Amino acid sequence: MDPTKAPDFKPPSPNEQLNPPPDPISIIPESGPIVPYVLADYNASIDAPFNLNTNSKSNKIKSKHESRSNSNNTTISTTTSTNTTNTETTPRKHKHSNHIPLNLSDFQPLSADISSASSSSSSSSSDNDNDSDKNNKKPTDNVTETDKQRAKDIENANANLLTDMLINVGVKKNQIADLEEVPHGVVRQARAINDYEFPTHRLSKKLSDPNKLPLVIVACGSFSPITYLHLRMFEMALDSVNEQTRFEVVGGYYSPVNDTYQKPGLAPSRHRVRMCELACERTSSWLMVDAWESLQPSYTRTAKVLDHFNHEINVKRGGITTSTGEKVGVKIMLLAGGDLIESMGEPNVWADADLHHILGNYGCLIVERTGSDVRSFLLSHDIMYEHRRNVLVIKQLIYNDISSTKVRLFIRRGMSVQYLLPNSVIRYIQEHKLYVNQSEPVKQVMGGRE
Questions:
Q1: Which SS3 state, helix, strand or coil, does residue 345 take?
Q2: In this structure, are residues 436 and 296 in contact, taking their beta carbons and an 8 Å threshold?
Q3: Strands, E, within 48-153: which ranges?
């Protein structure tokens, strides 16, 4: 958040003692930089691979030829058992997996009729599989056309069963068909600090990839209102982290700013928190909202907000469990747009101590926006260049420049905001008549990019 909007803002001095001071480094996990080191940093022959269990290309080719050879010289029963084994081992982590895994037990089919049909067909097909496995154990020289046809039928049945599973996964048990229209079953944040509890209902309890390190992404902002760009930022960050780093995203949080943040168009925090809840709970499987910052009596610096998440996740809960059962610290990173990062270069806005704390001890994921040149800015800014290994620039492959400022303008003018916000958020704005009788400076409206 822009420190100049704080009610008690004053330009920081070079050696100013911040109050409250940032948390000590000793309680922040040493997870290393977000960007892998290059050859010169390691002084080694190759850079560290993302997947440490990846086999060499020659081994893959060799195993491929061996599997073809075995398939031509084995019996039908062997083929059937091989297919069964492959089916059981299929759900492995894919190199380009870009979504937090879904738990199939949390979902139900789109139709009860389909559910009963698919379940009965799956049970019958599994019975057929077991029967065929028992009856098809014959010598190779006794293979008949009937046996071949039976094996082919079993393979088709397994393929149809997998297709049914993929089609039916889509609606959670606590939802109905329209994921955005009906805002029920949403985990709500407290409206008073005395009732506050840190949300963990979507925070992964265990790492799924033993070769990666855990990462939690935090976005601070006004979110007045939250838009599809705010949701897309997390998905773009998730893709970039999975593709370019050795980290695994275990959770994502929105942290709406306090009401004392002096910015025109800022709705009361209880409304902004609720809209964020409706947006991420109805459209995402891994995003959450934390109201701690909005419940504070005064504006809270971004550095202290990140300290709060580190305290809740690493200090109080001891981090996250690995596949071996041990606890490891979770890396906390700030997710921000290019315009917020550029404000870090403006003189007398951000305290140098806070910038070192945010960029050095936590890290930053920067989403480029149209017209911004984040990489050139990183090169020219001394503090950001010093911590460049802890900054990951995310390029938008499909540019999205939806801004909350323009959405508020559309609402004041009585224009449609459909497809700019989730439907549940639009309904909430209409029910509470938000942003209707407001006015904002023309300069902010024309240049607004929040």
A1: coil
A2: no
A3: 107-108
- Provide DSSP, 401-449: ---HHHHHHHHHTT---BTTB-HHHHHHHHHHTTTSS----HHHHHH--
CATH 3.90.1150.10 correct for 3-8+19-40+177-447: no
Distances, alpha carbon 79 to alpha carbons 84, 132, 144, 149, in Å: 9, 12, 15, 13
Q: Where are the domains of the chain?
A: 3-8+19-40+177-447, 59-85+104-172
The angle, 0 to 180 degrees and rounded to 10, between the axes of the packed helices 76-89 and 57-73 is 140
Provide the 8-state DSSP code for 418. B
- 282, containing H or E segment: helix 269-283
Q: pLDDT (tens digit, 0 to 9) for every residue of the chain, 450 residues total?
A: 666 667 666 667 677 777 788 888 888 888 778 776 544 444 443 333 334 344 444 454 445 445 545 555 444 444 444 444 444 444 444 444 444 444 545 444 443 443 344 444 444 444 555 554 444 444 444 567 777 777 777 777 766 655 554 444 443 444 433 444 444 555 688 899 999 999 999 999 999 998 999 999 999 999 999 999 999 999 999 999 999 999 999 999 999 999 998 888 899 999 999 999 999 887 898 999 999 999 999 999 999 999 999 999 999 999 999 988 999 999 999 999 877 777 777 777 788 999 999 999 999 999 987 666 777 778 878 898 999 999 999 988 888 888 899 999 999 999 999 999 999 999 999 999 999 988 887 766 666 555
